């Protein structure tokens, strides 16, 4: 996480004046606002350097927010009850330790939440990383420890920089898949499947799943151009070590092929192009096959840095944590794109720019984004809360 932030800051220094000009020039092109901020979320027990909001996930009315803290191990669950969003649970590992980075990645599907701890080191072998599965209790979410811990018992694997779930399947960087046993989730150090790509290249930190389809982002694969690799569940199920991709999704813009971050909803995949925008891929009538993008989305014409993407139905949300807002460098913003009536097309005009009502310099809103239905969540992990530097906050937006 820190490496990414330093890289983005370095690029910002080279493009600051151009980005400011581009943003101001494009402001008049943005249609009327359709989303309003309804909540600013902070952890009830938040501390300095938590970086709360480094990871976010949402399904329906339930929001999950993770930390990127070396000293704390927690992820938080919030419920949106008719516009009132409250913290209802703090999820913790039963074996948490300093340096595990529990909360670095989060995902949710229905009653299942998964939380990644990519530096899990307090069990042998060292630095294997772990994924923790939490199942909602019968009475609703409450503060609990995990139902199951998943890992690969491989030193230095650092799994779980990215995690995803559809409820019965859990996927973790760099492509390990676990299927829920018939008796329910239980600790496992043996994945059911491992996903690889035909280019024999490493994947990035981003993974996504929807139904029987998994997408892995690989920003430095495909001759360092970048790509997203898509896997359709085999007829025999996710039960093989060494499943190769069904399709390679590659953008054709000069910004690179994509894979820095990925998201999926139904027949549509969104893939961030190495920090320069987002590609949209729509499943062809004949089924998924290797292809170039259907559309290329950029918040405005110019140079900028995209770090995250979310998609739900016809809505794509792009997070830009180093975006200048007013005179505040790196306050960050998220941009909403709605699918046109005639389908996704290349555009540099977002439907809306989302910014925090109390945003400040270096908050980095948009480091993480997620969307479910008509609710958008965006993390600002470097926001200062009171006197707590980099405690972090997360913002919730819904249609006005």
Fold topology:
Blueprint: H1 2-27, E1 35-41, E2 55-59, E3 62-66, E4 75-81, E5 84-91, E6 105-109, E7 112-117, E8 130-135, E9 148-150, E10 163-165, E11 169-172, E12 176-179, E13 193-195, E14 207-210, E15 213-218, H2 221-224, E16 227-232, E17 241-243, E18 247-249, E19 262-265, E20 268-272, E21 278-282, E22 295-297, E23 308-312, E24 315-320, E25 333-338, E26 352-354, E27 368-372, E28 375-380, E29 393-399
Parallel strand pairs: 13-17
Antiparallel strand pairs: 1-29, 2-3, 3-4, 4-5, 6-7, 7-8, 8-9, 10-11, 11-12, 12-13, 14-15, 15-16, 16-18, 19-20, 20-21, 21-22, 23-24, 24-25, 25-26, 27-28, 28-29
Walkthrough of the structure:
The chain is mainly beta. The protein has one domain: 7 Propeller (Methylamine Dehydrogenase, Chain H). Helix content is 8%, strand content 36%. It has 2 helices and 29 strands. It has a 5-stranded mixed β-sheet with strand order 10-11-12-13-17, with no helix packed on it. β4 and β5 form a beta hairpin. The protein is globular, with a radius of gyration of 19 Å. It starts with a helix and ends with a strand. The N terminus is likely disordered.
Dominant shape: globular
- Biggest sheet strand order reads 10-11-12-13-17
Overall number of domains: 1
CATH architecture: 7 Propeller
What top-tier CATH class fits best?
Mainly Beta
Task: Determine the CATH superfamily.
Answer: Integrin alpha, N-terminal
Count of strand segments? 29
Number of helical elements: 2
Low-confidence stretches: 1-30
Keywords:
about 400 residues; mainly beta; Methylamine Dehydrogenase, Chain H; five-stranded mixed beta sheet; four-stranded antiparallel beta sheet; 2 helices; globular
